C-alpha cells in the first residue's frame, strides 16, 4: 500500500510518499478504499508539529471519501487520522454515508470545511437576516462555503481576498462587498457607516486578528477558527471593553463531539451540496505522489477552493 508518512516535523520536505504497512482494523473499525483525500491546514499544523504536537512517525490526513472494503458502501469522514493513503482503517460510527448521486470527490471536499462553515454561521454566531459580517479569505476552501451559507441565512457579507480573481469568486459566492486586506478595517467601517459588523470570521490569524477587533459592533464576536498566517499575538483583554466584545476559538471537534452530532451536521451539509444550494469548488487535484507540491500551494495561497489528493 502507498501512503504519505512523516518521520519528523518540518516543512513539505518531510512528507515521504512510499510503501506503508496495510491497515489492520481494530474493534469497531472497517477498512476503507480511499478515493479522494481532503487537504487542510490541520495537516500543515500536524506536519509542522504545532501544539499539541502529534507523535511521529505517522501517516498524515484527517479527511476523505471512499468505499468500505467488501461492501462497496460509499462513505466520507473528517477528523480521523491516516487518510493520506490508498487504504485506511476507520471507526464505523464516525463514517458518514454519501448519497449515490454525489461524487465521492465532492463529498471529500465538503466534509471538514463544509461542517466548519456550518457551525460558524449557525452556532459560533447564528447569523440573522440583515446581519453584516466580515469573512476573511473568502476565496479559500472554508471562505467560499462560509460566504454561501451566510448569504443563505440572509447575512450581508463583506469579504476579503487578495487578488482580482479571488475577489470575483467571493462575489459569485454571495459576498455583497469584496475588499483587499491592506486597510480593511477602515474600509469595513466606511461600508457600514461606522456601525461595524456583528461578527468577524477569521481563519487567517496573526496578520488580521487585532485589526479585525476594530470593526466589531457593540457585543460583536471575533471568531478565530484558524490561523493560516500563524497564531495571533497574546491578546490584551482591555481591547475587548470597547463595545463588550467577545472572542472565540471554536473547533470542529467540539461541534461534532458525538456520533449523533457528526451525522446530523454532515447530513445537513451533504444535502445542501447534493441539492445544489451549496457549491463546493475543487480548486486543484494532485496525485498522492505530489503531496509536497500540494502543501506548498496551500501554504502560499496560490489556489482557491478545496485541494484534493487522489490515490
Overview in brief:
The protein is α/β, with parallel strands linked by helices and 311 residues long. Helices cover 30% and strands 26% of the residues.
How would you describe this protein?
The protein has 311 residues and is an alpha/beta fold. It has two domains: 2-112 and 256-310, Quinone Oxidoreductase, Chain A, domain 1 (Alpha-Beta Complex); 129-249, 3-Layer(aba) Sandwich (Rossmann fold), CATH 3.40.50.720. It is built from nine helices and 16 strands. The chain has helices at residues 41-48, 104-124, 141-152, 164-172, 184-191, 209-213, 252-255, 259-275, 291-300, and strands at 2-6, 16-19, 29-39, 58-59, 63-68, 74-78, 87-91, 96-97, 132-135, 156-160, 177-179, 197-202, 216-224, 246-248, 282-287, 306-310. Strands 3, 5, 6, 7, 8, 15 and 16 form a seven-stranded mixed β-sheet that branches. α4 (164-172) links the parallel β10 and β11. α2 (104-124) crosses α8 (259-275). The longest helix has 21 residues, at 104-124. The chain is globular.
Taking the sheet with the most strands, its summary is: 7 strands, mixed
Write the CATH architecture name of the largest domain.
Alpha-Beta Complex
Question: Could you say which overall geometry the principal axes of the C-alpha atoms support?
Answer: globular
Q: Runs with pLDDT <50, length 5+?
A: none
Strand content: 25-35%
> What is CATH's topology name of the largest domain?
Quinone Oxidoreductase, Chain A, domain 1
Helix content: 25-40%
| Count of folded domains | 2
Instruction: Provide the structure class.
Output: alpha/beta
Query: How much is the average pLDDT?
Result: 96
Order of helices and strands: EEEHEEEEEHEHEHEHEHEEHHEHE
Number of helices: 9
- Amino- and carboxy-terminal Cα gap: 10 Å
CATH superfamily of the largest domain: Medium-chain alcohol dehydrogenases, catalytic domain
CA gyration radius, whole angstroms: 19 Å
User: What is the level 1 CATH name of the largest domain?
Assistant: Alpha Beta
Amino acid at each position: 500500500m502507498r501512503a504519505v508518512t512523516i518521520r519528523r516535523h518540518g516543512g513539505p520536505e518531510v512528507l515521504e510518499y512510499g510503501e506503508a504497512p496495510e491497515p489492520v482494523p481494530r474493534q469497531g473499525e472497517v477498512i476503507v478504499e480511499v478515493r479522494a483525500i481532503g487537504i487542510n491546514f490541520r495537516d500543515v499544523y500536524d506536519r509542522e508539529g504545532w501544539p499539541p504536537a502529534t507523535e511521529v512517525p505517522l501517516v498524515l490526513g484527517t479527511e476523505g471519501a471512499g468505499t468500505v472494503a467488501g461492501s462497496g458502501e460509499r462513505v466520507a469522514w473528517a477528523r480521523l487520522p491516516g487518510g493520506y493513503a490508498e487504504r485506511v482503517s476507520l471507526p464505523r460510527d464516525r463514517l458518514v454515508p454519501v448519497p449515490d448521486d454525489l461524487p465521492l470527490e465532492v463529498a471529500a471536499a465538503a466534509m471538514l470545511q463544509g461542517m466548519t462553515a456550518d457551525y460558524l454561521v449557525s452556532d459560533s454566531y447564528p447569523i440573522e437576516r440583515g446581519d453584516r459580517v466580515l469573512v476573511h479569505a473568502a476565496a479559500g476552501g472554508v471562505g467560499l462555503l462560509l460566504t454561501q451559507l451566510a448569504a443563505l441565512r440572509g447575512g450581508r457579507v463583506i469579504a476579503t481576498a487578495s487578488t482580482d480573481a479571488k475577489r470575483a469568486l467571493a462575489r459569485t459566492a454571495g459576498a455583497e462587498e469584496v475588499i483587499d486586506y491592506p486597510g480593511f478595517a477602515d474600509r469595513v467601517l466606511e461600508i457600514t457607516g461606522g456601525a461595524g459588523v456583528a461578527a468577524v470570521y477569521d481563519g487567517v490569524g496573526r496578520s488580521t486578528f487585532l485589526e479585525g477587533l476594530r470593526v466589531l459592533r457593540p457585543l460583536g464576536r471575533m471568531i478565530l477558527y484558524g490561523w493560516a498566517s500563524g497564531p495571533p499575538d497574546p491578546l490584551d483583554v482591555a481591547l475587548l471593553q470597547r463595545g463588550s466584545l467577545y472572542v472565540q476559538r471554536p473547533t470542529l471537534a467540539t461541534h461534532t463531539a458525538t456520533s449523533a452530532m457528526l451525522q446530523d451536521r454532515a447530513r445537513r451539509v451533504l444535502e445542501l451540496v447534493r441539492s445544489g444550494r451549496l457549491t463546493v469548488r475543487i480548486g486543484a487535484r494532485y496525485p498522492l505522489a505530489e503531496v509536497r507540491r500540494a502543501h506548498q500551494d496551500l501554504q502560499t495561497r496560490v489556489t482557491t477552493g478545496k485541494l484534493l489528493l487522489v490515490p
